[in-house]
């Protein structure tokens, strides 16, 4: 007998179950380090996934949606305009994409150059609230990854914080992969220390966007306020 495609109800159930499992992990990780789980936002990374999958996540209570690909995300926004979602751009950001990002997103997590930040500020519509922004830090000094270095971070943050249509909220990083919890925590601790250093001179910094499926416990232990999870919610790409 040929296998039948999963029904909509089965798909809904799978996404809801996955989100429930992740929320339990976040609760336990928060309890283990004396934090309130409500301080940690689950950001559902939906790149390559259809709008229907995002709708299922929203039905399960997740309204913060991360996207890497601009045109794909704009199509989903149009299809899901009836939902009160918060859209986060987390992918590489080139100059030719800044206008659309500034006009449609609530957050950007991947800014590492002043030129890009200035364009976002200039292109953010005046009728919209300031665009929430995290600076991406290359916390493990990997040549293959984007991100500002820790030595250049204070100067960039000071400039970005002065831009009128942006609200600098904090830092984002994707450390080098590791299965060693101590190494995971060391990288996340470095990002936390960097944020604490900036907080002495810049008001309103309250966000550490760090931690994914494999290392969210270590990230939460070091102060993550937002964890970015894709496969463990929506399945393999």
State the main characteristics.
single chain, 237 residues, alpha/beta, TIM Barrel, 8-stranded parallel β-sheet, globular
Outline:
This protein has 237 residues and is an alpha/beta fold. The protein has helices spanning 8-32, 51-59, 70-79, 98-104, 114-123, 153-161, 181-199, 216-221, 231-234, and strands spanning 41-45, 64-67, 86-89, 107-111, 131-137, 166-173, 207-209, 226-229.
According to CATH, the homologous superfamily is Alanine racemase
CATH C-level category? Alpha Beta
The radius of gyration is: 18 Å
Largest sheet: 8 strands, parallel
Residue share in β-strands: 15-25%
Q: What's the overall geometry? A: globular
CATH architecture: Alpha-Beta Barrel
Count of distinct strands: 8
Task: Return the structural class.
Answer: alpha/beta
pLDDT average, as an integer?
Answer: 93
In the sheet with the most strands, the strands line up as 7-6-5-4-3-2-1-8
How many angstroms does the end-to-end distance come to?
27 Å
Domain count = 1
The H-and-E topology, N to C, reads as HEHEHEHEHEHEHEHEH
Total of helices: 9
Here the CATH topology equals TIM Barrel
Uncertain stretches of 5 or more adjacent residues: 1-10
Helix content: 40-55%
